[in-house]
Amino acid sequence: MKFSQQEAALRRLRAPLLRWYRRARRDLPWRRTRDPYAIWISEVMLQQTRVAVVVPYYARFLARFPDLASLARASRDEVLSLWSGLGYYRRARALHAGARLLVERHGGQLPDDPALLRGLPGIGPYTAGAIASLAFSREEPVLDGNVRRVLSRLLARLSIPDARLWELARALVRGPSPGDLNQALMELGALVCTPRHPDCPACPLARRCAARASGRPEAFPRKKPRPVSRSVRVAVALVEKRGRVLLERPGATSPLRGVWDLPAVELAEGARAAVSLERALRRHGLTIVAGAETPLISHSILDRRLRLETLRCRLTRGGTAARGDLCWVEPQRLATTPVSGATKKILAVCYSGSRGRAKRYGLHHSSGTAPNAASSPAQ
Questions:
Q1: What is the distance between the alpha carbons of residues 156 and 24, in angstroms, rounded to a whole number?
Q2: What is the rounded (10 degree) CA torsion for 198, 203, 209, 215?
Q3: With contact defined as beta carbons under 8 Å apart, do 255 and 188 qualify?
Q4: Disulfide check for 80: which of 73, 188, 328, 338 has CB 3.0–4.6 Å away?
């Protein structure tokens, strides 16, 4: 394969980069296996989530679903329950759907062809390249924020089009140990070539880095302006019955993002929280009386800054028939129910005055095995 002068210069960095990685890499559980299934799980969990957060979830998930067949057999609620607290639940839904698709169409095995991998739910070019290179030693590139930053700094370029970055990453991965090479690039960006304070003296590529030579390595690449966040008022209902808390499956228009959440509604300008909640729950066949408001809570989701106005509500009618969109959660199950960070934050504040009660609701829960069912139906 013919390389451009720029690509050829980058390829000369393969050897020192691999030597550094094998000496300095972190000992992470997914680096101790070549099992495509386990690598797939780790790559999906690591999307938009810190390594330290993922490690215990990864261990629990594989203990419960040790192979693709066991994941495919599980119910969606069981998978989501085990994912509780990790956030971005669409990743868990995609994993579950992908496992079932693999059983139906690929004999229960992950293919080594990146094109086939990209046809699975939730797998894009990055994840396909990671699985193909790490599990099957295919010379497939990866391109995440860390790799973008490392390549941009090596070339001292403020901005490089994504198409060109993929070309550079593809040229660099050609050769022995493509999986280790991809891991090395990502590890260098995570540990050394960090966004704000790159540790250039510790970098194995420092002598050949154009950004370091410029004296301003942190200036590369040019930072994209953050989207302007908008403030959104949200009314939230805290309804209890016989020691259980009412949750709903958020619809497409819900301001919250859990699989289950406290009933919530986005408020129009000038709208009263109590009236809006009473109307929203009436659509579920429930009659409530909104009472005292708890302290105002702020919570950010992407470019939306939520102002959560939570009201303690008394149920006066309804809530006795089983429904698929409502459930009453027992205190001991709350910690393993897939709710959003906003709901957990609300409950922590509402019960902060009662340490015993907060503990019962699992608000300080950090480990343990998820139950088979997330909750009981609304009855």
A1: 25
A2: 40
A3: no
A4: 338
Structural domain of 262: 232-377
Task: Write the pLDDT tens digit of every residue in 12-30.
Answer: 999 999 999 999 999 999 9
Query: Is 218 a known active-site residue?
Result: no
Q: Give me the CATH number covering residue 81.
A: 1.10.340.30
227: in domain: no
Tens of pLDDT, residue by residue over 94-125, are 999 999 999 999 999 999 999 999 999 999 99
User: Is the pLDDT confidence value at 150 over 70?
Assistant: yes
d(CA 130, CA 43): 8
* Final residue belonging to a domain, choices 153, 186, 219: 219
The β-bridge partners of 245 are 240, 329
d(CA 246, CA 237) in angstroms, rounded, equals 9
43, 187, 248, 309: the active-site residue:
43
**Mean pLDDT over all residues of the chain?**
91
**How many C-beta neighbours within 10 Å does residue 177 have?**
17
